Amino acid sequence: MEPFTYERASTPELASGSLESALARMGNERTVQGRWPAEYLAGGTTLIDLMKLEVMRPRHLVDLGELRETHGSIKVGVDGLKIGALATMAQTAEHPDIARNYPVIAQSLVLAASAQLRNMATLGGNVLQRTRCNYFRDVSWQACNKRNPGSGCAALEGVNRLHAVLGGSQDCIATYPGDFAQALTALDATIEVLGPNGTRTMAFVDVHRMPGTTPNIETNLAPGEVITVFNVPAGPWTRRSLYLKIRDRQSYEFALASAAVALDMADGVVRGARIALGGVATVPWRARESEAMLAGKSLDEQGAKAAARAAFADAKAREHNAYKIALGQETLVRALLQAATMEA
């Protein structure tokens, strides 16, 4: 781990100002990894690991820990959820109203990490976690466009069993590793962001960027911006929702394929479906083609399989990850059929 300076922020405004000031002191230039030389520290469960591996080398950290009292609350209303970005994964997953009325959120968090990590990790940090691609996390590999822009992507012709079949490019096929983000994507969540230019609201689905030719730029957040709140709208689909995660082992592990599904149904007919896929794509993946196919129809195995095929129509497999197409389809079929049997 390389040396760095450190400060604690007591308000989001001070946090944003501190990071902006640090960037200005450091010339406001990106590092060779394409990252800004100052970073926010929340739970630290991902950032500290990457700093130890010298994958990330920030020169300055702004600690957001003191904001948990003011930005770690959970409010449930008739219009939906308002969750502070500094709420922990455990706190959110164990909230009785969320477990009852937004089960896809609770399940995505419980299945995401060990109990110890869930007690420390914040929601804001969780959705911004970086890929678990081995070529990214091992600095002995030079060819990683996320870490060394312009160096190439070793995964394209290397061992790519865990890599994405949706949303990749010739410059990167690293999989987005999170689970909670799929639930937010399926439920049309929005976020509130505070930065040097004030506050703004954006759709959660617009936060993450597909790699394209600049895989080192992973989000549409501007330098110095910090997520303060997650807003999840209420709707007839939230109670009939679930998160299904398929992985190599049932204990703490990242998804090979996952599906966040939320259904609005009446008399066995789908009035609306919301679907997001994980473990198979470079970003939290909204399967809108599948949603359109299900609308207005009875949900049976044949219909679920057709929707699953549509979700992977544009999938591109590599040497070792072709199995993810069939696995992803079967995961979505199971999730849809299970959701259809839930009580709303």
Present the secondary structure layout:
Elements: E1 5-8, H1 12-25, E2 38-41, H2 47-52, E3 60-63, H3 68-71, E4 74-77, E5 80-84, H4 89-93, H5 96-101, H6 103-110, H7 115-120, H8 123-127, H9 134-137, H10 180-186, E6 190-195, E7 198-203, E8 226-233, E9 241-246, E10 257-266, E11 269-278, E12 285-286, H11 288-294, H12 301-311, H13 323-340
Parallel strand pairs: 1-3, 2-3
Antiparallel strand pairs: 4-5, 5-8, 6-7, 6-8, 9-10, 10-11, 11-12
Helix pairs in contact: 6-10, 11-12, 12-13
Summarize the structure.
By secondary structure, this protein is an alpha+beta fold. It has helices at residues 12-25, 47-52, 68-71, 89-93, 96-101, 103-110, 115-120, 123-127, 134-137, 180-186, 288-294, 301-311, 323-340; strands spanning 5-8, 38-41, 60-63, 74-77, 80-84, 190-195, 198-203, 226-233, 241-246, 257-266, 269-278, 285-286.
Can you offer a commentary on this structure?
Helix content is 29%, strand content 20%. It is an alpha+beta fold.
Counted beta strands = 12
| Beta-strand share of residues | 15-25%
Task: Give the helix proportion (percent range).
Answer: 25-40%
With strands numbered from the N-terminus, the spatial order across the biggest sheet is: 4-5-8-6-7
Record keyword descriptors for this entry:
four-stranded antiparallel β-sheet, alpha+beta, five-stranded antiparallel β-sheet
